[in-house]
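Hey, can you fold this one?
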Amino acid sequence: MTASTRTAKAGKGLKAAALAGILIAGGAGTAYAYWAAAGTGAGTAAAGTMQAVTVDALVAGDGPAAALVPGGTADVVLRLTNPNPYSVQVYSVTANGPATADSAHSGCTTTGVSFTGTTAPLSPATFIPANSSTLLTLPGTAAMDTTSLAACQGATFHLPVTAEVRK
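Sure. Predicted structure:
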């Protein structure tokens, strides 16, 4: 093989490499154009339903610090449970029926006990974290007037309430 033949073969190899480079670059350009294409369409989504936050009866250790006496007021303590996967804000708490005494005080038929609901929005703002419960103390929202019977002494009063919460 002469020197001129080797040069011609090497030149053909360079031309083939250059052609392959152009084809690869052209293919990359085509792929980019393909993936950059625009389009239109429609989608759907469904909104989840908020689960009810519950107000539970107090358990040992949840009670208020002060006792309710005729002519006085006391704090109300609520245990609120949020089963949702996001936190909720307690917006307000309102009365939802008359106060009743515990079963050990059956002679307490006239309790004289009332619950004063909160203003909305509740201040300070109170949030219940996702999938948890919290104690909420409402200062001075229970009152006992002087019509309470003596049989109500030492009773625990059940105050039906409705708590409004918002996401």
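Residues 2-8, 28-33 have pLDDT under 50 and may be disordered. Let me know if you want another pass with a different chain boundary.
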